[in-house]
Amino acid sequence: MRCNRALRTPWSDVVAGGWRRGAPSLDASFLCELAHDHGGDHVDYLDELAAEVHVWARWDDTGACRFVVMPPCGVVDHALDPVKREACHLTADHSSGHSWQVTDDTPSLD
Ligand SMILES: [Zn+2]
Ligand SMILES: [Zn+2]
After folding, report:
1. According to the lineage, what is the superkingdom (predicted)?
2. Ligand nearest 94 Cα, by number?
3. What is d(CA 34, CA 32) in angstroms, rounded to the nearest whole number?
4. Cα(88) to centroid(ligand 2), Å
């Protein structure tokens, strides 16, 4: 299960103000991608600057948020057929389960 702790993004007021045609798609909230039993800060993946260089929103339980650049964890599940293996995309320093162990039960917004 995913943590899914939400935090309003610094640009949530812009999102609430509505869209203009051609405006980039922005989320009103960050959602933590780590496993529900993780320790430390919450994180949400934002963008890839270059190969293995990812931008994350990172916040604590007080809601203090900062942006960090970090490589992905990259650990693979060796119990799987090499063709089906997927490297963990969470932050290199994450605690708890790898991305391929975390069930994403976020309700679909489609
Ligand atoms: Zn979290
Ligand atoms: Zn991992």
Report:
1. Bacteria
2. 2
3. 6
4. 4
